[in-house]
Design a protein that fits this description.
2 domains; alpha/beta; globular; binds N-(iminomethyl)-L-glutamic acid; TIM Barrel; 36% helix; Urease, subunit C, domain 1; 421 residues; binds fe (iii) ion; eight-stranded mixed beta sheet
Length: 421
């Protein structure tokens, strides 16, 4: 007997992972749509995918059945970039930005990221856990079944570890899968403002080794930008992280074009993220070295900045992934659906490209594409059911959530209580 049969879906968008790897360029247009589709699930995994009438015939018994008539079924979204473990909000800064004060000016004046650092340091682990859990539920309710999550609001040994332990404990609850990233090199903490060298040494010699010892993070990220870490400082920290066994990610070329994308290629990073001001050479090298571009259109929208040159990046053959960048400062947006819409309507991606980038490609950018990111037999049953008749409606009908049900490892973890289809 099956655990779960989802049937009668007007579309199942499988994103089929035929090549067992990320899709690039025109491959991103291939969604592997099954009209009138069904999915059979057992032991938390997908065991069959096909036409609804065939699966209904093949599986007469299922412990649970979901009639997805009028709905579109997709792989759960994989959010490739979040700053999930935080407490508090920064709406006052948001209002200042609306009046023309720049994000970077607020940071340089000791606010911005440092504002959240203060709150995270003051919070008990329990308080941070509760707040992070709410953040995770917000992502989940927008169809995200796996999220990368960065630390970076502790900026000392104790509070960075507090953030990463919260992520580990939250992941154990099983609803949202979390891929943890250490971002101790987010900015220089206030107590090291006049001695940045000492903080970089602390990161390299104390905090990074301790995080590695506790296996608390899979990746190490650096905010390589004006007001944060220079190109050479970033290189030094990333190379040390590599030595300790971390995969590498970089906040690159977001505010100032420092050359972070090129650095990502030189140090063997998995991804360069943001890329609003990436150079042509950076794009060329990323395509050559197969470094993922993690694009974050929610941040451009929220900061009222230009979008990353998505069309150029896709045409060059760079594997592209999407993320919310959910954080209390530059992008207080937990809606992956909205991010997909901005990717298309603001950044110029096609709907098919946005879906591939936020599922299969995001999963491969986190090194978990063999397990999640598409609706293929053998993969984890991470699925989102949308109350739209075709995937095009996810972009056409904007401004309301379409999420009807979110399924993680075959278990319904979120349900909208009054589904429209
Ligand atoms: O990706 N750019 C650096 N870090 C975050 C912002 C974090 C914050 O403002 O709290 C980002 O946009
Ligand atoms: Fe970020």
């Amino acid at each position: 007997m099956l655990d779960l049969l989802i049937y009668n879906a007007s579309q199942v968008v499988t994103v089929r992972d035929d090549a067992k790897g990320p899709k690039v360029a025109s491959e991103m247009l291939d969604l592997g749509v099954i009209e009138g589709g069904a999915i059979a699930i057992e032991g938390g995994k997908i065991v069959d995918v096909g036409k609804s009438d065939e699966l209904l015939e093949r599986y007469k018994d299922a412990y649970k059945r979901i009639d997805a008539s009028g709905c579109t079924v997709l792989p759960g979204f994989v959010d490739a970039h979040t700053h999930l473990p935080f407490v508090g909000t920064r709406e006052d800064e948001f209002l200042l930005r609306l009046k023309g004060v720049e994000y970077i000016e607020i940071l340089k004046a000791g606010g911005g990221i440092l504002n959240t650092v203060k709150k995270v340091r003051e919070a008990t682990k329990d308080e941070l856990f509760k707040s992070t859990k709410i953040n995770a539920l917000k992502l989940l309710s927008s169809g995200v079944t796996t999220a990368e999550a960065k630390s970076g609001y502790g900026l000392n040994l104790e509070d960075e570890i507090k953030q990463l332990e919260v992520l580990r404990e939250l992941a154990l609850e099983g609803s949202l899968e979390i891929v943890p990233t250490f971002l101790g090199a987010h900015v220089i903490p206030p107590e090291y403002r006049s001695n940045r060298r000492a903080y970089i040494d602390l990161l390299k010699e104390v905090i990074l080794p301790e995080v590695a010892k506790g296996k608390l993070a899979k990746f190490c990220d650096v905010f390589c930008d004006e007001g944060a870490f220079s190109l050479e400082e970033s290189r030094e920290i990333l190379l040390r992280a590599k030595e300790l066994g971390f995969g590498l990610r970089i906040h690159a070329d977001e505010i100032a074009p420092l050359g972070g994308a090129i650095l990502a290629c030189q140090v063997g990073a998995k991804s360069a993220e943001h890329l609003i001001r990436v150079s042509d050479e950076g794009i060329r090298m990323m395509a050559e070295k197969k470094v993922f571009a993690v694009l974050l259109p929610g941040t451009s929208f929220s900061l009222r900045k230009p979008y990353a040159p998505a069309r150029k990046i896709i045409s060059a053959g760079v594997p592209v992934a999407l993320g919310t960048d959910f954080n209390p400062g530059s992008c207080y947006c937990s809606s992956m659906e909205m991010v997909l819409q901005l990717a298309v309507l603001g950044m110029g991606m096609l709907p098919e490209e946005a879906i591939v980038a936020s599922t299969l490609n995001s999963a491969y950018s986190l090194d978990i594409g063999d397990r999640v990111g598409s609706i293929d037999v053998g993969k984890q049953a991470d699925i989102v059911i949308m109350s739209v008749p075709k995937y095009s409606f996810l972009f056409y009908e904007i401004g309301r959530s379409h999420v009807r049900s979110v399924i993680k490892r075959g278990r319904v973890v979120y349900e909208f209580d009054k589904p429209i289809c």
